[in-house]
Amino acid sequence: MTRNAGPGLGFEESLLFEQSRPGRRGAETPRSDVPAVDAAALLGDALRKRAPELPEVSEVEVVRHFTRLSTWNAAIDLNLYPLGSCTMKYNPKLNERVARLPGFAQAHPLSPESNTQGLLELCWRLERLLAEISGMDRVTLQPAAGAQGELAGIMMIRAYFDQRGEKRHKVLAPDSAHGTNPASAALNGYEVVTVPSGEDGILHPDALARVMDEDVAALMITNPNTLGLFEEHIVELCELVHARGGLVYGDGANLNALLGVARPGDMGIDVMHFNLHKTFSTPHGGGGPGAGPVGLTTALAPYMPRPVVEKTAEGRYAFDFDRPHSIGRLHGYHGNVGMLIRAYCYILTLGAEGLRRCAEMAVLNANYLLERLRPAYHVPIDRPVMHECVISDRALADTGVSTLDVAKRLIDHGYHPPTIYFPLIVAGAMMIEPTESESQEGLDRFADALLAIAREARDDPETVRSAPHHTRHRRLDETRAARRPILRWRPGSSSN
Length: 496
Ligand SMILES: Cc1ncc(COP(=O)(O)O)c(C=O)c1O
Hints:
With 496 residues, this protein is an alpha/beta fold. It folds into two domains: 94-348, Type I PLP-dependent aspartate aminotransferase-like (Major domain) (Aspartate Aminotransferase, domain 2, 3-Layer(aba) Sandwich); 354-483, Aspartate Aminotransferase, domain 1, CATH 3.90.1150. It has 17 helices and twelve strands. It has helices at residues 13-17, 39-43, 59-70, 93-99, 102-105, 117-134, 146-164, 180-187, 205-211, 234-243, 264-267, 276-279, 337-373, 403-412, 440-459, 461-465, 478-483, and strands at 138-140, 170-174, 191-195, 216-222, 247-252, 271-274, 294-296, 308-311, 317-320, 389-392, 419-420, 429-432. The strands form three sheets. A seven-stranded mixed beta sheet has the order 1-7-6-5-4-2-3, with helices on both faces. A hairpin with a 5-residue loop joins β8 (308-311) and β9 (317-320). The radius of gyration is 26 Å and the shape is globular. It starts with 12 loop residues before the first helix and ends in a 13-residue tail after the last helix. The relative contact order is 0.14. The site of pyridoxal-5'-phosphate (PLP) has 15 residues, from α7. Pyridoxal-5'-phosphate (PLP) binds next to α7.
């Protein structure tokens, strides 16, 4: 069901998308000053019979069309974007500028090493910076996303045990784990065993000890976890796994909460991924490219994906392919270099102190928000949080308003909804990550919107249950939208 055109736009539906009119032009080409040729004689059958069906539009219509489309979307450049576990923080425009420098942006992926020394040096330096930040020995920059980083990490763990002739069949993961954790282990042929978290939302050594044995290749653990809680027993958990010969995979997707304060490598993590497209500011989601480098200990270094950028004795940078135990290549050419450049720029811009301040602000902001929301929403695990907080719809149960309704109503207030119904261990969860880039005023505006919705749930629940009201489309059939997405407008289609 289509409703409004977007903020302040009351155009008729048909005018909104189809702008083309025969003969309309946005550009003029100079009159040809070369003699006309007989195109048919020259091209024969290759001459097209019909003009291409291109939109015929004036410049002003093109500009208005795309500006209008941009207003139908939620964006971090417009507002706080509370999608928990996704760290939708502001991306400094300087990073974009640096990634577009011609020496980087126009480097051909097949250029010889001698022509791309700057880019290779950046990769080499970024590896060292990430290793320093995380306390790991080496880092591979190849994986294209967090999930692929997990896959790479578990592949390295499998290669490590294969090399030692050890047959281990299980991977452990807490019940709060992100879905990609068990998926990466299962893709590598491991049986996934879920370990229950305690009442306090974190993993306890006694629960781990009950399932840990010599058949376990690894524990996969996210820290801070998806409830936004620091896994306080992490050192003891790692020791327990190591004592039985296993390895620990650290899901580092939430590293923005630890930057400059604590390092996974120092806690006993053997292998971990970074989400450059979250922690180091490049956008997450939206279908754009990402990068999920993986940090590892020296024991796993022989299995790193190849090639690896090394510095030669002469001070040159070169790809090292000669890695006989490598798990192989995971990405073409240099990986998603645009993301690597942005992350490098972000790290250098902030420096060590700035990165630490990121973590401090991320934690402060999440706790501030939690305190503001507490009067109206249920807080399932009532402890200080790290970078994100989880609330639920339990306090609204008597109004008939659910988490989904609150999320939809937030859209009317101009916000993208938070992550909902995850983590799975909290019924009706709303997982909110304000990130470090929000000001107190921004946090207050967002909290005020959620508090207003809770009040409205009591005074006028139907308005919340039937939200959103101010969007181009009302509630979608979420299953069909996911299974049969219509991602492209076609002439004559009614669904714009
Ligand atoms: C905890 C956690 N692990 C893994 C991932 C997977 O990362 P990606 O989306 O880059 O594949 C995410 C994504 O947000 C995450 O939040």
